[in-house]
Write a structure and sequence with these properties.
Layout: E1 5-12, H1 17-29, E2 33-37, H2 45-56, E3 61-66, H3 89-104, E4 108-113, H4 121-129, E5 134-135, E6 149-153, H5 158-162, H6 165-173, E7 178-182, H7 189-200
Helix pairs in contact: 1-7, 6-7
Bound molecules: zinc ion (ZN).
Length: about 210
């Protein structure tokens, strides 16, 4: 069975153009949306914005934790990683989780979205200790867990994917389900509209799949 189809909008921290583009994608495509929010950088005004969007759209709308402060703590020359050598990771994770749970209530999804899709034994252990039930990351469709993403649309891929709509269309035509990861904060409005057009063309059988509860 194909994994469910949804949007994962990363790096959301406040109302504004980035949030508006995430809202546009959700409203125009009707796809379920996971807003992955950086809790220790989030603005409390985001709470009302999410509540208001959820009133406007029938699409399921969730908020998941995206790192803690999204700061790279890896030693120089290593892959980016929030969980470096300092010792306060669990405290930051808990602080972020508490903030999201208490502010977003029913919209909170107990899934951890790692910055840079960086998953290690350490991050698995820490997020389990902090009480997260799953980690969302990048996976091939055949391996995708319910919250994994299988298509990435972001700034560095603009030349092949967004400037060349045909290539992105081909990618989505071959798309077998799973999440579509976007970074609405760094997209332009034109790119968000183009992506919404393309996603609206997704065959019906790949849309509207109900997602499991957290
Ligand atoms: Zn991020």
């Amino acid at each position: 069975m194909s994994p469910p189809c949804f949007l994962r909008c990363d790096d959301v921290v406040e109302p504004g153009p980035g949030f508006d583009r995430a809202a546009l994608l959700t409203e125009r495509t009707g796809l379920p949306c996971v807003l992955s929010v950086i809790p220790l950088r989030a603005d409390a005004r985001l709470v009302d914005a999410v509540r208001e969007l959820s009133r406007r759209t029938p699409a399921p709308l969730w908020v998941a934790q995206h790192g803690t402060d999204h700061r790279n703590r890896a030693p120089l020359g290593h892959n980016k990683d929030e969980f470096g050598d300092d010792a306060d990771h669990l405290q930051r994770l808990a602080q972020g989780k508490n903030w999201l749970e208490s502010h977003f209530a029913d919209h909170f999804l107990n899934v951890y979205v790692p910055p840079w899709n960086r998953v290690t034994d350490k991050s698995r252990r820490l997020t389990r200790l902090a009480g997260f039930s799953e980690i969302s990351t990048f996976a091939l469709p055949s391996q995708a867990a319910p919250w994994d993403v299988t298509v990435e649309v972001q700034a560095q891929y603009r030349p092949p994917m967004l400037r060349e709509a045909a290539e992105l269309r081909a990618l989505l035509t071959a798309y077998q389900g799973g999440g579509i990861m976007v970074h609405p904060v760094v997209m332009t409005d034109d790119e968000a509209n183009l992506l919404a057009d393309l996603l609206s063309d997704l065959p019906a059988r790949r849309r509207g799949v109900s997602l499991p509860n957290s």
